[in-house]
Amino acid sequence: MENSHGVKEDTTANGYAKKWWKEAVVYQIYPRSFKDSNGDGIGDLPGITSQLDYIKGLGVDVIWLSPHFDSPNADNGYDIRDYRKVMTEFGTMVDFDELLKGVKQRDMKMILDLVVNHTSDEHAWFVQSRQSKDNPCADYYIWRPAKDGKEPNNWISFFAGSAWKKDASRGEYYLHLFAEKQPDLNWDNPKVRSEVHDLMKFWLNKGIDGFRMDVIPFISKDQSFPDFPKDFDGRPEYNYAAGPRLHDYLQEMNREVLSKYDVMTVGEAFGVTLEQTPLFVDERRNELNMIFHFDLVRLDCQGWRWKPWTLPEFKAICARFNEGLDAHSWPTVYLTNHDNPRSVSHFGDDSPEYRILSAKLLATFQLTSKGTPFIYQGDELGMTNYPFASIEEFDDIEVKNTWKAEVLTNRVSAEEYLDHIRKTSRDNTRTPMQWDDSPNGGFTTATKAWSAVNPNYKVINAKQALADQNSIYHYFRKLLELRKQTPALIYGDYQDLDPQNPSVFAYTRTLEPDKYLVVLNFAKSDVIYTPLEGLKASQLVLSNLDAKERNVSRVDLRGWEARIYKL
User: I need a surface site. Which of 23, 64, 284, 301 has the fewest CB within 10 A?
Assistant: First the structure.
C-alpha cells in the first residue's frame, strides 16, 4: 500500500499500514501528582526523572506529559502563560532536558500536551490584546462588542456561566469556552497560527515525539457567532467542534510542521462523532493520527450527574467504533485520564475483595482491544477514587463553579451534588501517586501534599506492587509483553461474540492465520459461559486467576475473571 505521499508502506493482511505509534502503549503522567523531588508538596520534573526505571519496567513505549508549561494554574496548567518556559513549581528547562534525555536513554518516547485553543489571560499576547483595538496582538483573541447591552451571543462556558467576559480596559467582550482566565485564541488570524507552528517546532526540535492536542476541534469559530439553535440540548461541545475552517487549519499544521518529523499526534476530540472521525484521522487526509472520543468514559455521565450503566451499552460503544472505522483510521483505547474518575472505581469493583482482579480485567480489555492504549499513572497499581467528604476537599474549578451555579442557588441540595460528583469528578485521578506506605504515600517529604493522598496508600502502593509477582503492575507487564509479540492483538479484526450478555464480554481478535479469544466476566458472581460453536482453544495464553483449562466449549468464570485464549 502507498501512503498519501506515494511511499510504499508495510501493511497487515487486513489492510492496516504498520506504524510505531499504532504498536506503542502510552503512559500518561500528571506532573503535579507524580513525584515530588524537593519537598514542597508538588510533583515536579526531577521527580519524574527519578522514576523512569519504574515506568520503563512496566514495558510502555511512550510517556505523555500533561502540561508542564509556565501557568498561573487557574485550570491546573491548561492555562498557559508562556509556552517556552517550564512551570517554576515543576523545575527548569534544564530539568526538562534531563527528563527527555533519560526517556531517550531508556528507548522510550515522549509527547507533550499542546494547549492552543486558549491561553492564560496572563500570557503576554492577551495582556497586550486587551489594552486597545490597534496593538500588534489586538486580533490574537476573539473580541466582540456588546449586543443589545449584553453578551454577543448565548454561548456557555464548560465551567458554568456565559462564555463571554467583558473587559473594562478594552470595553469589549472576549470569548472563553473554559475559565474566564482562559481566553480563546483567534485562529482566523494567520499570525496566531504561525505562532502556534513556531512553538510546536521549538519543542519538536528539542527531540520530543509528538503532541496530545487539547480540545483541538474547538479552534475554528463561526465568526458570525450565532446563538445556539432552538433545539440546543445543553451539550455545547457539538456546536463548538463544528467550526468552518477546522480541517483547513489541521491540514496546514500538518503541512507546515508535523509532516517534517516522525511523530505521533492524538487530538482530544470533545464534540466529535464517530461519523466525523475519519475527517480527522484518515491517513490520506494528513491531519492527525488519532483522536480521543468520550463515548466510553462518559457512558455514565449526564453533565455532572452520574447514571447507572450496563455492560451491553459498554460493548455497543466498542462495536460501533470497531465497525465504524476502516483500515485508514486508527482508534485509541483508554478508560481514564486526568479528566475522569479512576478506572477501577468507574468500570471495575474497587472493594478490597475485587479491586485487584477487576483492575487486571480492565487492563486485559484495554491491552487486547484495537487501538493505541493510553494508561494513566496509577492504573497499574489499581489506585481508586478518593473518599471526598465535603466540597472543600475538591480542587477542580469545574466542580467549584458548578457548586456555585447549582447548590448555592438552591437548585440541588449539597448532599445530592456531592453524591454524584464523588463518582464523576476528575479530582479522583489527580490525587498524588502512591509510591510506598510512608507518610503521604512516599509522594513527598513535605508535611502536606498539594492534594490529599488517598488514605488507602498503606495497602495500595508501588513498593508493594513491585515486590508482589501477582500484583496488577506485573500483570500489566505480562499483558504489554504479550501485546508486543502478538500482531493479532494490535491489528486484528474484532468481533463481539455475545453483545447482549449482561455480565460476560467475549470477543475475538483475528489476523490470519492467528485468532485469539478474550473472555471477561464483568461481575462478582461466578458464571458458566458457552462461547460460539466451533471455537477450539489450543492454548490458554493468560488469565488474571490461576485458570488451567484449555477447552472453551464451556468456560467456568469466577467473579471478575479474565482469560485470553489462542484458538
Answer: 284
